[in-house]
Amino acid sequence: MKDSLQDAAARTRRYWFVDGLNEMVGGGTILIIAALNYFLDQASQQPWAGLATVVFFVLVVGTLVGARWLIVLLKERITYPRTGYVAYRTQSAPQRRRHSLIIGMTAGLLGAASAMAGMILQANIFYIGVGLLVALVTLYKGGQYGLVRFYILAGVAVLLGCLIGVLNLAMEAALLVFLGGLAFSWMIAGAITLARYLRGTRALADADSATGTEEL
Amino acid sequence: MSNEARSFTDLDRVLHEPSRLMIASLLYTVEKADFLYLLNESGLTKGNLSAHLSKLEAAGYVVIEKTFRGKIPRTLIALTDTGRSAFEEYRAALKKIVDQIS
Question: Which residue among A151, A187, A198, B21 is the one 20 to 30 A from B4 at the CA level?
């Protein structure tokens, strides 16, 4: 019974990832950010480089907010009518502040460390490190939710880092290859998961849904 | 009555039924879920699930809210604070019994 209870709780936590929409939208988000970063890099020599940086950050934040909105919208249309709706518990205000502070500090430290490493190291060595870091985070998420496909995505991140190492690309081209490769691998993983999900489920007709509620 | 035997009789009878325990464990990690989700995850029939939810509601362990998603009715079910505490106490009591036996 203990195993079955733990399994039920784990299944519910994993449910957010059941349809692959997160990876598909997440991959698209990475691709957009990579493209924006490329244009920002091209604009760096222009007199309006400062304005381009501000626009870049506004567009990145907009993309992240839009991605979240899109996932919820797609789940409303695809997932909830098929396998049901779940609202996850939200953190209390102090917990949220603490969580945001930790994430902000970690992101800041990692960003500063990456910028320093980027200046010191060559692109090929740097991206092997970035690939390993991304793989570690992806492995952690895979372990946390029990998602095997995340282990494969972690492997892809390591492979991309090593590929850049072998190709010996310049820093800007390496970033495009790394983020582009990561984005496509996420979108493919998401698309496969979504296809399997759609094959294995069916949207209940309105009448069926209504029957479920009427019985209570 | 021995302590071990008393531990068994102290178990929450509402949650001790496997289907209701499954429903409570599904709801424990979330804020709320709809009828369709519980139906899919529990593997119960609509009638059975309705009956168990009614018992949990009567015990004050779940709250049932009827809403609409567009024109489609949606029944949302959430574990109450009482239900959450009861589930935690049940798990602790069960663990204590298992520890006593082993």
Answer: B21
